[in-house]
Amino acid sequence: MFTGYSRRHFAKLAGFSALGMVATAAKSADNEAKPAADRHAPASFPNDFIWGTATSAYQIEGAVNEDGRGRSIWDTFAHTPGKIGDHSNADRANDHYHRYKEDVRLIKELGVKAYRFSIAWPRVFPEGTGAPNPKGLDFYDRLLDELLKNGIEPFATLYHWDLPQPLQDKVGGWRSSETSKAFANYAGYVAERLSDRIKNIFTINEAGRFVNFGYGWGIDAPGLKLPQAELNQVHHNVALAHGLAVQAIRAKGRAGTKIGVADKYTDGYLAYAGKDAPKYTAEELKIISSPNDFVGLNIYAPQFYVAAADRAPGFSVLPFPASFPHMNSEWLRIGPETAYWVPRIAAKIWNIDTIYISENGTSSADKIAADGNVYDLDRIMYLRNYLTQLQRATSEGVPVRGYFLWSLMDNFEWIFGFEKRFGLYRVDFKTQRRIPKLSVSFYRDVIARNAIGI
Ligand code: BG6
């Protein structure tokens, strides 16, 4: 049953924020001698900063029964009565499968140079494993050609939650390491066929979300509520899938293909899991630790504010007051400083030199005004604040190389169906008409100036 409670009542890694950490700028002795900086001057991003936008396959493609696509766990889940807030499903969604050329034009009009999309595993391997479906891959061939023709760099995600249903039925989905192996096989196949044009591959999107929500709390597909030890094993199988996929892509893809995104074990995680810690072999840990070329961070909202504490783990989590402001999704609390602290801390603890903000954006209750425009002023407010903090991070040398705004257009927002609109373009789901919202001009301007400011 649709519970109506916010999925983000639960913690996830991306998007935390720390309180009590204060960066102090050293006062330089010659400060007085210099003319005061123009407080109103726009603040620039690095010259080679990559501006982009993002989507995912199940949320926009539609055409679920076309060209040999298999079923995914989200098809099953969305068609189960009571699971989706507005009783919709993504059978048609944005009909992007047929309208991809129009959508690439929208991407181009934004002025972005990069597009992060996901490949639907059940299009490429309808059974999850076994024989590939050439027609499924053909769609991505067409999409890639269209993107490149328009000067847009593709960044592909291999898994944005649409697990082939047969894997769920036959081996229990991510409960089995058979799924990890099947994922690596799919990853290698895609790399072999498409890495002549895709230079950057994200393996898995937000493992923490789909494992906890789908296998722990039962509010996302496949809707299971496993005990903690079994859930931790699911986490392990997903991390293993990532590691195996990194190896498969390196083996089958073109040299120089860059790979990223992972949840990895830390000593802290294993200590926290205690007797429920997953079972693994030393060999598996080695696979999981296969080096990444970059890390993607999806940054939306602060999940915790913490205060320093003398006892382990060294901090205590503070309660949120009911009046803490949020955007049009209840879980989307406003915390622009996450765009500063999350990449800064991630760079330090993971010792990485390439970070992408793989998602950032907001829902808005935007409507078409009498003059035909969509004035999504709250989205612009949100973006301006988060980008200001992100610029602060890059100006201090935090290695954020690019930013992908979620999302290109309104789409099927998982358990919220079409009720929540995250797009830069408004979509009328009856006519499939796309209308640029005011935030399109805002983002276009940021990109053109490569700066955020007045
Ligand atoms: C991100 C997901 O975590 O949140 C996206 O990667 C999703 O796929 C976005 O659209 C918004 O989430 P929700 O749950 O409000 O639809």
Beta-strand percent range: 5-15%
Can you give the mean pLDDT?
Answer: 91
Number of strands: 14
H-E order:
EEHHHEHHEHHEHHEHHEEEHEHEEEHE
Helix percentage range: 25-40%
| Distance linking N and C termini | 46 Å
User: How many helix segments?
Assistant: 14
Radius of gyration: 22 Å
Largest sheet strand order: 6-5-4-3-2-11-10-7
**Assembly type of the shown chains?**
single chain
Bound molecules: 6-O-phosphono-beta-D-glucopyranose
Low-confidence stretches at least 5 residues in length (pLDDT < 50)? 1-33
Largest sheet: 8 strands, parallel
Task: Assign the structural class, choosing from mainly alpha, mainly beta, alpha/beta, alpha+beta, or little secondary structure.
Answer: alpha/beta
The dominant shape is globular
Lay out the secondary structure:
Blueprint: E1 43-44, E2 50-54, H1 57-60, H2 73-78, H3 96-110, E3 114-118, H4 121-124, H5 134-149, E4 153-159, H6 165-171, H7 177-194, E5 200-204, H8 207-216, H9 228-252, E6 258-260, H10 267-273, H11 282-288, E7 295-298, E8 306-308, E9 315-317, H12 338-350, E10 355-360, H13 377-395, E11 400-406, E12 425-428, E13 433-436, H14 438-449, E14 451-452
Helix pairs in contact: 3-5, 7-9, 8-9, 9-11, 12-13
The protein binds 6-O-phosphono-beta-D-glucopyranose.
6-O-phosphono-beta-D-glucopyranose (BG6) is lined by residues 7, 56, 205-206, 209, 298, 329, 359, 406, 413-414, 416, 420, 422.
